[in-house]
Amino acid sequence: MEFFQNADGQLVIWAAIGVLVVLGILVINNKMRRVAIFGVHGVLGIAAVFVINLTMGGFGLAVGINALTMAVAAILGIPGVIMLYGLTFIL
Fold first, then answer.
1. Residue ranges for the chain with pLDDT beneath 70
2. Distance of alpha carbon 6 from alpha carbon 63, whole angstroms
Protein backbone atom coordinates (compact mmCIF):
# COMPACT_ATOMS: atom_id res chain seq x y z
CA MET A 1 0.00 0.00 0.00
CA GLU A 2 2.94 2.31 0.34
CA PHE A 3 3.09 2.68 -3.46
CA PHE A 4 -0.27 4.49 -3.59
CA GLN A 5 0.50 6.82 -0.74
CA ASN A 6 3.42 9.11 -0.64
CA ALA A 7 3.43 11.76 2.09
CA ASP A 8 -0.25 11.63 3.03
CA GLY A 9 -1.63 10.51 -0.35
CA GLN A 10 0.11 13.04 -2.55
CA LEU A 11 0.86 10.45 -5.24
CA VAL A 12 -2.85 9.80 -5.72
CA ILE A 13 -3.57 13.51 -5.89
CA TRP A 14 -0.80 14.08 -8.45
CA ALA A 15 -2.04 11.13 -10.51
CA ALA A 16 -5.57 12.58 -10.50
CA ILE A 17 -4.23 15.97 -11.54
CA GLY A 18 -2.25 14.32 -14.34
CA VAL A 19 -5.34 12.52 -15.63
CA LEU A 20 -7.32 15.78 -15.58
CA VAL A 21 -4.57 17.58 -17.48
CA VAL A 22 -4.48 14.87 -20.16
CA LEU A 23 -8.28 14.97 -20.51
CA GLY A 24 -8.14 18.78 -20.72
CA ILE A 25 -5.54 18.59 -23.48
CA LEU A 26 -7.72 16.14 -25.42
CA VAL A 27 -10.74 18.45 -25.14
CA ILE A 28 -8.71 21.49 -26.19
CA ASN A 29 -7.18 19.49 -29.04
CA ASN A 30 -10.67 18.63 -30.32
CA LYS A 31 -11.73 22.29 -30.23
CA MET A 32 -8.48 23.40 -31.86
CA ARG A 33 -9.05 20.86 -34.61
CA ARG A 34 -12.37 22.57 -35.38
CA VAL A 35 -10.67 25.96 -35.47
CA ALA A 36 -7.94 24.59 -37.76
CA ILE A 37 -10.51 23.09 -40.13
CA PHE A 38 -12.35 26.43 -40.23
CA GLY A 39 -9.07 28.17 -41.06
CA VAL A 40 -8.22 25.70 -43.82
CA HIS A 41 -11.68 26.12 -45.35
CA GLY A 42 -11.22 29.89 -45.22
CA VAL A 43 -7.83 29.76 -46.92
CA LEU A 44 -9.14 27.42 -49.63
CA GLY A 45 -12.14 29.70 -50.17
CA ILE A 46 -9.91 32.75 -50.51
CA ALA A 47 -7.70 30.81 -52.95
CA ALA A 48 -10.82 30.00 -55.00
CA VAL A 49 -11.86 33.68 -54.94
CA PHE A 50 -8.36 34.68 -56.05
CA VAL A 51 -8.34 32.23 -58.98
CA ILE A 52 -11.84 33.26 -60.04
CA ASN A 53 -10.84 36.93 -59.78
CA LEU A 54 -7.98 36.24 -62.20
CA THR A 55 -10.35 34.79 -64.77
CA MET A 56 -13.49 36.89 -64.20
CA GLY A 57 -11.76 40.19 -63.46
CA GLY A 58 -11.78 41.08 -67.14
CA PHE A 59 -15.58 40.92 -67.15
CA GLY A 60 -15.89 43.27 -64.19
CA LEU A 61 -16.75 40.50 -61.71
CA ALA A 62 -14.11 40.79 -59.03
CA VAL A 63 -14.78 40.13 -55.36
CA GLY A 64 -12.63 41.82 -52.74
CA ILE A 65 -10.49 39.60 -50.58
CA ASN A 66 -11.07 40.46 -46.91
CA ALA A 67 -12.18 38.91 -43.62
CA LEU A 68 -15.86 38.89 -44.58
CA THR A 69 -15.32 37.02 -47.83
CA MET A 70 -13.04 34.58 -45.99
CA ALA A 71 -15.74 33.94 -43.38
CA VAL A 72 -18.40 33.44 -46.06
CA ALA A 73 -16.14 31.06 -47.97
CA ALA A 74 -15.24 29.15 -44.78
CA ILE A 75 -18.80 28.79 -43.53
CA LEU A 76 -20.71 28.31 -46.78
CA GLY A 77 -18.02 26.76 -48.95
CA ILE A 78 -18.26 26.78 -52.75
CA PRO A 79 -21.93 27.86 -52.75
CA GLY A 80 -20.86 30.85 -50.66
CA VAL A 81 -18.18 31.78 -53.18
CA ILE A 82 -20.74 31.51 -56.00
CA MET A 83 -23.11 33.66 -53.95
CA LEU A 84 -20.41 36.34 -53.59
CA TYR A 85 -20.00 36.50 -57.34
CA GLY A 86 -23.78 36.52 -57.81
CA LEU A 87 -24.09 39.48 -55.46
CA THR A 88 -21.28 41.24 -57.31
CA PHE A 89 -23.11 40.66 -60.60
CA ILE A 90 -26.45 41.87 -59.24
CA LEU A 91 -25.11 44.88 -57.35
1. 1-13, 15-16, 23
2. 65
